[in-house]
Amino acid sequence: MTLETEDLLQSILDSLDRIDYIRPDDIPDIELYMDQVTTFMDSRLKNAARNPEVDKILTKTMINNYAKNNLLPSPVKKRYSKEHLLVLIFIYYFKNILSINDIQTLLNPITDKYFKSQEKLDLTSIYEEVFSMEKEQIEVLKKELLKNYQTAQNTFTDAPEDEQDFLKLFSFICLLSFDVYMKKTIIEQMIDSLRENDPKKKK
């Protein structure tokens, strides 16, 4: 592939090292009003947006719809707790690959049992446990990206030289897309299984 593509790949790998998540300690312990919630989420997740100047991380309409669809517990006197923000963060990441119905199936058991829990295992500890895996997974992802990149470089060797760069890049994107497609399919199958075994649905 061209130097341009290699530079792009290196830029992507470097950006993975800078990926961060909202730590529970970063979330205010005081309850927030709607405008404060959207401002906080926007300031902490804006860099994750594809077009930071245009894309909206979270709007009032989104939050109201999440509550209406039973994705987010209702606020108390129009104020949102730390646990509300944790649920919103989960929704933010899930909504890029899952339907609202799937997110509801996945999150409802969590919010039903652990939201405002007085036990040691609460929503904050679940969030911390899940996201503590982040750094290790980023290293795994970087290795997978490099492996797929090398695989794509070995494709279309018989194509005209002036067409090879684009075709190799196309191969690389196809490999990554197939990986996303397969993982999404597996996630959906697991969520379908959760839905089938939900005692509430069986009743």
How would you describe this protein?
It is a single chain. By secondary structure, this protein is mainly α. Helix content is 66%, strand content 2%. The chain contains 9 helices and 2 strands. The protein has helices spanning 3-17, 34-45, 60-68, 82-94, 100-114, 123-131, 134-153, 161-196, 199-202; strands spanning 32-33, 79-80. The chain is elongated, with a radius of gyration of 20 Å.
Helices and strands, with pairings:
Blueprint: H1 3-17, E1 32-33, H2 34-45, H3 60-68, E2 79-80, H4 82-94, H5 100-114, H6 123-131, H7 134-153, H8 161-196, H9 199-202
Antiparallel strand pairs: 1-2
Helix pairs in contact: 1-7, 7-8
Q: In brief, what are we looking at here?
A:
This protein is mainly α and 203 residues long. It has helices at residues 3-17, 34-45, 60-68, 82-94, 100-114, 123-131, 134-153, 161-196, 199-202; strands spanning 32-33, 79-80.
